[in-house]
Amino acid sequence: MTSAAVRRPRPSIVRAEWIKILGSRGTLVAFGLLATLPVAFSALVVANTPSTDPPGVPGDDDIVANTLVGVLVGAVVAAVVGATSIGNEERSGMISTTYTATPRRHRVILAKAFVAVTTTLVIGVVSSCVSYLVARPLQRGQGYVAPSYPEPDLLSVAPLRAIVGTGLLTAAVALYAVGIATVVRRTSIAIPLVVATLLLPGLLATSDRIQEFVGRWTPFAGFSVQHTVQRPDYHAGPWHGLGVTVAYAVLTVAVSLVLARRRDTAH
């Protein structure tokens, strides 16, 4: 990774990006969707998923992860936020003005990445917490109650890590989208590419061997940060999985910074 990748962008550049993002109606709408859609999706899923475990028999469902299933929708919205942070300017041609004001393109990319990660992280954590608080009572109504399913302690390590980790995963997806959008330079390509590489491997994996590979070494691995129980179909540890997704995100941003430097030289 280049030294520029770890250098914090200048405050003036970051301030300019904050002004842009807060002045964009489309981005504000996306933030609203990122805050609400995961909650609604989680509630809808758990309200229609009854427990199949006999009363009194210990269950093996991951009730905390199930209340956070809305992250599947949130990840798509986060991809939109990340990709449009630079893609909208590419499409409108305003990116030329931005690069004129800040000739070193890597600083612009880092500033956009910083703002996208910060906003999606905060919204993601809040949305995850609300998702749990809304979905858990609906779960109880579907039979997910003690003794089969003891009530989770939100202040214990696993549930707290799942909720905060979901916010971290959301931010990682936004960062991944910033990198992809900067490389391909088209939002219409970047968003489907991010969603396809993030979600499709997990949805399309068939054999056990493929599922294990997908669960450990593709961007889909990040969803394991939500796991709070031990199951045979959980192939990666929580932090291992999240680390894999973050690694993909950092790699794409690093590639975009290298390309930015080359474009600087060409100009």
Automatic annotation (TrEMBL):
It comes from the Bacteria. The chain crosses the membrane at residues 28-47, 67-88, 109-134, 154-177, 189-207, 239-260. It holds the Pfam family ABC2_membrane_4. Keywords: Membrane, Transmembrane, Transmembrane helix. PANTHER family: INTEGRAL MEMBRANE PROTEIN-RELATED, MEMBRANE PROTEIN. This is ABC transporter permease. It comes from Parafrankia colletiae.
